[in-house]
């Protein structure tokens, strides 16, 4: 909440218009609150980025567990966060877009929405599901002028990664990409901005990787 308010203040100070609303993407009432406050402040909702996600909740499922040994409570948490955390905002915010006859939704999947990774079965399953959801919803809502696409980031330099891994592991992860480095959050954001803009007016149901060449290997 503190970080969200800080970012909103920075945007407003630089001539933009931003509003931070605290909410849980797994709570329909929270998402209805986000929708209603946004409509009240801005009049319409043109773009949505579903960016909530993560893997292996602390104390529930550990990184070294495989598909035959995983904790079922951990599995449900990972699936809920990554899949239901995309479905619920899409349902609530998308309904407002349908009423205004237009909008764009970008779902953040992962490179693991296309390929496998050992010891992350729940996360891989959820991110594959996000890609499938994107395609299905895009086809359903194309005639309502709502475009829906997904992005598959590689390993990105964020606190979620850098605060949980030691430097040796971070270097090893960076070298998984042919470009030999971690991606930057801004590099993912640029694509999300493009897909939510009118410049992408004939693009829907697609998946785009931002991965420094990871999936080309």
SSE layout:
Blueprint: H1 2-13, H2 28-42, E1 47-50, H3 72-100, E2 103-108, H4 121-141, E3 146-153, H5 159-162, H6 167-174, H7 185-195, E4 207-210
Helix pairs in contact: 2-3, 3-4
Mean pLDDT: 93
Kindly report the oligomeric state of this protein.
single chain
Uncertain runs: none
Helix-strand topology string: HHEHEHEHHHE
Approximate strand percentage: 5-15%
Task: Compute the CA-based radius of gyration.
Answer: 18 Å
Q: Span from first to last CA?
A: 39 Å
Percentage of residues in helical conformation: 40-55%
- Please state the structural category: alpha/beta
Report strand order across the widest sheet. 1-2-3-4
Number of strands: 4
Could you describe the largest sheet, including whether it forms a barrel? 4 strands, parallel
Q: How many helices?
A: 7
Apparent shape: globular
Describe this structure in words.
By secondary structure, this protein is α/β, with parallel strands linked by helices. 46% of the residues lie in helices and 10% in strands. It contains seven helices and four strands; from the N terminus they run H-H-E-H-E-H-E-H-H-H-E. The protein has helices at 2-13, 28-42, 72-100, 121-141, 159-162, 167-174, 185-195; strands spanning 47-50, 103-108, 146-153, 207-210. A four-stranded parallel beta sheet has the order 1-2-3-4, sandwiched between helices. The N and C termini lie far apart (39 Å). The mean pLDDT is 93.
């Amino acid at each position: 909440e503190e970080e969200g308010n800080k970012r909103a203040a920075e945007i407003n100070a630089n001539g933009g218009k931003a509003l931070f609303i605290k909410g849980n993407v797994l709570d329909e009432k929270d998402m209805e609150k986000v929708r209603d406050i946004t409509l009240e402040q801005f009049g319409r909702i043109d773009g949505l980025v579903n960016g909530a996600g993560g893997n292996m909740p602390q104390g529930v499922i550990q990184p070294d567990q495989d598909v035959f040994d995983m904790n079922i409570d951990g599995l449900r948490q990972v699936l809920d966060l990554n899949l239901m955390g995309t479905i619920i905002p899409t349902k609530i915010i998308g309904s407002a877009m349908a009423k205004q006859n237009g909008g764009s939704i970008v779902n953040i999947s992962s490179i693991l929405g296309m390929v496998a990774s050992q010891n992350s079965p729940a996360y891989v399953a959820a991110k594959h599901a996000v890609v499938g959801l994107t395609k299905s919803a895009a086809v359903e809502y194309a005639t309502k002028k709502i475009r829906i696409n997904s992005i598959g980031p590689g390993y990105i330099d964020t606190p979620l990664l850098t605060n949980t891994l030691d430097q040796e592991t971070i270097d090893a992860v960076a070298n998984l990409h042919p470009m030999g480095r971690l991606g930057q959050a801004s590099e993912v954001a640029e694509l999300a901005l493009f897909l939510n803009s009118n410049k992408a007016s004939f693009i829907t149901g697609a998946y785009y990787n931002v991965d420094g060449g990871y999936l080309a290997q």
